[in-house]
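Notes, p. 3: input format for complexes.
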Amino acid sequence: MTEYDVVVVGAGPAGSTVASLLADRDLSVLLLDKDVFPRWKPCGGGLTIKTLNRYPYIKEIVDSYTYGGCVYSPSLKQYVSKTMEEPLIAMVSRSRFDDYLVRRAVEKGVIFQDNSKVLDIVVSSENVKIFLDNGEMYNSSLVIGADGFSSIVARKTKLLDSRRNVGICIVKETSISKEVLDEFYTEKRIAYIYPGLEGITGYTWVFPKRDMLNIGLIHYHRGENTSNYNLKKILVDLIYKLKEKKLLPLEVDDSDLKGGAVPVYPLDKTYSNRVILCGDAAGLINPLTGEGIYYAMASAENAADTVSEAFKKDDFSESSLSIYETRWKKDFGEDIGTIIPSSKIWRRDYEKLVEIVKRDPILTELLLQLITSQVSIKSIKGKILRRYLIASIFK
Ligand SMILES: Cc1cc2nc3c(=O)[nH]c(=O)nc-3n(C[C@H](O)[C@H](O)[C@H](O)COP(=O)(O)OP(=O)(O)OC[C@H]3O[C@@H](n4cnc5c(N)ncnc54)[C@H](O)[C@@H]3O)c2cc1C
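Output follows (395 residues plus flavin-adenine dinucleotide):
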């Protein structure tokens, strides 16, 4: 078959979720991905608890839970930490997680084709033509671009020219025995954050999972050109410093570091005639933390509602699809739209900040709630600023 109701480009969390939901509504759906699945995706693999609450089925693929966080100052001399009774973050292996979501979509009737890179999209008044690198071509009434940061769908449909703000990342995930991870990070799997190292506007993370350790760095800056910082060197230096201080297992080396990027600003428009963009392709990321999986899945849900209505009306025009943007803005726009630019948030004197925050356990807990997305910045900003001010005056 070369004709589908909907072709979804990209089988990450956004693509598999929207494909599943559309198959549930009896539409014929082709899901394409350029990679061979299961595939590795540069990611920390941290899921906020609100993701689990909204999509409870993903609990069965959770690898481990993190109950506490520890933030170090750039000199590594001071830290502030907090452990909770309830989990703060669920950890997954991205290759297993994404593969699980694809299998789920296939069970619902989605046709999945991996190893299929989309090279071109041509939208006309009758349909959309999708051209692959192997010479194949598919027709559909509508195309969903869930193809991540460099989205070919967004570029070919002129919704994306270049990204305004981006987070450049370096990451590695390595297998470490459960016993060693218990020793370093306890059974509560405490996650470590190192903000502002070497003056970068961003942070490094160490996420222990059940028997894997994920370590990475994100640096926010404007535009897509490469940053002036040698991010790889900053991460490698940290790995050796942490091992020296016995804060990282000796087994962790500096091999297999992978690069990645996150878009830190929604596109001006996330739909056009016969086209909808979801997840990273649309720039839907929490600019404070770099969290994107929740927004990928939530935007997929908003897209599925919009697309099934468009089929009922038999209207795939831009004006019919515009409700998609209204939906995602209402759903989670507050998390990603009203926040000040991440490059500003992360440009701080962290030596001083850690020293002040550790004076006030309630302030520590509020910040933990914020960075684990339990509350929106809008709802908690005032409280945090007040407590920070008081803590900075009284030693
Ligand atoms: C280093 C790093 C760490 C991160 N850590 C976290 C974290 O801990 N928690 C969190 O919530 N978020 C994290 N994120 C963000 C998160 O990974 C993304 O927001 C999320 O993957 C977005 O999902 P998506 O489905 O929109 O896109 P993706 O997961 O990027 O999926 C896009 C898919 O499209 C495919 N594709 C691309 N181009 C084509 C093409 N031309 N033809 C066919 N297929 C194509 C790709 O192969 C890919 O499978 C991190 C990101 C990075 C880079």
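Residues 84 and 385 are 23 Å apart (CA to CA).
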